[in-house]
Recover the amino acids of this structure.
């Protein structure tokens, strides 16, 4: 049942909804220990691409392979190695923080779910609010909890859609540190974000999307805003 | 196989825990079902006696309508926070997720029926206590068939813009055989002299529909849920 990979490869990916093309001819690969940014204006296709990489959406054309395995062939075993933090946070507001994490930990078949969840709550700085219903949490607290939900099973590929939304500076800095920690542990991280200032210095590589097409990619640790303007036209 | 039921149980337990905190579905579904029976009682009961043999039909209409409400709201919850995507992303058999959602809806519909049946007996002088086991069997079998199709469609439509309109349009035509079998079987029990043989025939039909609908739903859930 266990499956692992160190490389994700997208080849000629396309996705259309009727006659509208959301993605067209996207090809790239990323490796363990990389943080790859998906950058582009609204409607560029970033969330669609993340949904395809998360196996939630089937591409109309092209393939994605995870260390040689396709989503169709690897199925549930592959899904167990993927973590997704979407724009919606995938949390049950009526349940407490602990109940949310326990539910997902058990869904992923983790043996010592209670211990894993305690550690996750500590990392999210929510141990003192563990038994409070999520409905009473601020956006930042929910975001931190949702990140732990996405990471509870230690995924190899982590997909993040606007992870800095609603976070104050301190929480954003903590998230950046957490992602760098995961990077050093060999996680493949793909982040779709508009927050160029926070992402600057975090990304190993940036992929620039516009109108569903990959228009440019570059590597570099700084000057992201200038690189974005050069690739897309406006920040 | 044990993993299949473990996942299904996790989903049921989660759904019941969410409902226990909000009481949203139980209260709205029961309120709707009771209102439905009351409206029919005002229209069809004269001088303390029901006009014709309508109790069975009213019982099943109330079950079907309140069931549709429950199905829609259950998946609306998953849609609002997009948690259905998180469920689909889990390394679990997707049919197990379906079974979990189905069982949660069955529990909810059973609670509604536990209120409805005595109410129908009271307002329409239906002999609901004469053949309790056979009546329970008809209700359980009919509810499973109805909810099996409804759970599949409600999950499938969760991201459709017109889901509230589409659910009954898709659900009612396909579940008509279940409703007819339920009504005819229950009506056989509600006669002055209950006809056990006829009720058992319709019960067998309902069990047949259950097998067909549950099998089809388990078979099609995964491909239908992949966008």
């Amino acid at each position: 049942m266990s499956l692992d990979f160190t490389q994700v490869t997208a080849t000629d990916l396309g996705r259309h909804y009727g006659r509208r093309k959301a993605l067209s001819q996207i090809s790239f690969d990323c490796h363990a220990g990389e943080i790859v940014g998906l950058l582009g204006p609204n409607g560029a296709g970033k969330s669609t691409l993340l949904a395809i990489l998360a196996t939630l959406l089937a591409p109309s054309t092209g393939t994605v392979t995870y260390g040689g395995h396709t989503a169709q062939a690897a199925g549930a075993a592959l899904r167990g190695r993927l973590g997704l933090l979407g724009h919606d946070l995938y949390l049950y507001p009526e349940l407490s923080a602990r109940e949310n994490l326990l539910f997902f930990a058990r869904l992923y078949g983790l043996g010592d779910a209670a211990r894993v969840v305690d550690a996750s709550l500590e990392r999210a700085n929510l141990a003192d609010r563990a038994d409070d219903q999520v409905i009473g949490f601020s956006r930042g607290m929910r975001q931190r909890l949702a990140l732990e939900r996405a990471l509870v099973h230690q995924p190899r590929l982590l997909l993040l859609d606007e992870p800095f939304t609603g976070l104050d500076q301190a929480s954003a800095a903590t998230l950046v540190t957490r992602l760098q920690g995961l990077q050093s542990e060999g996680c493949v991280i793909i982040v779709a974000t508009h927050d160029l200032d926070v992402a600057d210095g975090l990304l190993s590589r940036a992929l620039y999307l516009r109108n569903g097409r990959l228009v440019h990619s570059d590597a570099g640790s700084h000057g992201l805003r200038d690189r974005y303007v050069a690739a897309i036209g406006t920040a | 196989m044990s993993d299949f039921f473990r996942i299904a149980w996790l989903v049921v337990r989660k759904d019941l825990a969410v409902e226990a905190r909000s009481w949203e579905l139980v209260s709205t579904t029961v309120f709707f079902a009771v209102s439905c029976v009351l409206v029919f009682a005002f229209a069809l009961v004269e001088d303390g006696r029901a006009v014709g043999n309508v109790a069975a039909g009213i019982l099943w209409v109330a079950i079907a309508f309140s069931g549709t409400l429950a199905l829609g709201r259950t998946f609306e919850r998953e849609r609002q926070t997009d948690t259905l995507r998180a469920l689909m992303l889990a390394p679990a058999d997707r049919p197990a997720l379906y079974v979990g959602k189905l069982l949660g809806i069955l529990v909810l519909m059973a609670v509604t029926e536990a209120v409805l049946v005595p109410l129908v007996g009271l307002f329409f002088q239906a002999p609901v206590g004469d053949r309790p086991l056979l009546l329970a069997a008809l209700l359980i079998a009919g509810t499973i068939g109805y909810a099996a199709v409804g759970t599949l469609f409600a999950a499938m439509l969760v991201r459709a813009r017109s889901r509230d309109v589409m659910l009954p349009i898709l659900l009612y035509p396909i579940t008509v055989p279940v409703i007819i079998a339920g009504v005819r079987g229950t009506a056989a029990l509600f006669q002055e002299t209950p006809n056990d043989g006829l009720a058992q025939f319709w019960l067998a039909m309902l069990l047949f529909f259950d097998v067909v609908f549950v099998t089809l739903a388990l078979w099609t859930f995964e491909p239908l849920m992949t966008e």
Q: What stands out?
A: The beta strands of chain B are 45-46, 49-50. Chain B is about 85% helix and 0% strand.
